[in-house]
Known about the structure:
Elements: H1 2-10, H2 13-31, H3 36-51, H4 55-73, H5 78-93, H6 97-115, H7 120-136, H8 139-151, E1 163-165, E2 168-170, E3 172-173, E4 179-180, H9 186-196
Antiparallel strand pairs: 1-2, 3-4
Helix pairs in contact: 1-2, 2-3, 3-4, 4-5, 5-6, 6-7, 7-8, 7-9
Amino acid sequence: NNLGWLYLELGDLTKAEPLFREMRNICERTHGQGHPEYARCLNNLAVLYRSMGDIAKAKPLFIQAVDIRKKALGEENTEYATSLCNLAGLYASTGDFARAELLYVQARDVFGSVLGEDHPDYATSLNNLAVLYLAMGDYAMAGLCAAVRLSKGIVAEARLVYFSIADRPLRASGPEGVLIGRSLTDAEARRKACAAIGTIDIM
């Protein structure tokens, strides 16, 4: 599994695929299809297919991982919430913003209730929503999510750190713990948001 992730990070997807497929088969034989570990293996394979641009193969695997974690772990569980985020990212990358929003909101609520609103994972869920709303052109909601996130004083890893609301830069804390931001045109902001869709944390 670790070797598969290494190949994935190096961009050698053809070498990563058989390793992820074999790991899924091992998980199935060892744990069965209803086990959370099997869901993790499905999720990893789905991430690979999404990286390859094969949405048709990635989507059913993400959906199956969501269903398994829901049944095995319940809805008030962070692994379940992470699966919701992964599926939401896939929907967002294909322009299905309505479904993506529903899942991101549900995941945010789970992270908030289980971990508390001061936890970095809750902050990341707000970031996911902010990126989505920016891609949708809903700058008011994007700004609201980012403002709530900043009000928590949490530095969570964010792939998108550039927002522009009413021609003013909205500053966001990046991984380095510094405030960064600049003014962008609406077209550039939307382009960056769309490029960032789907690059959420994977677990």
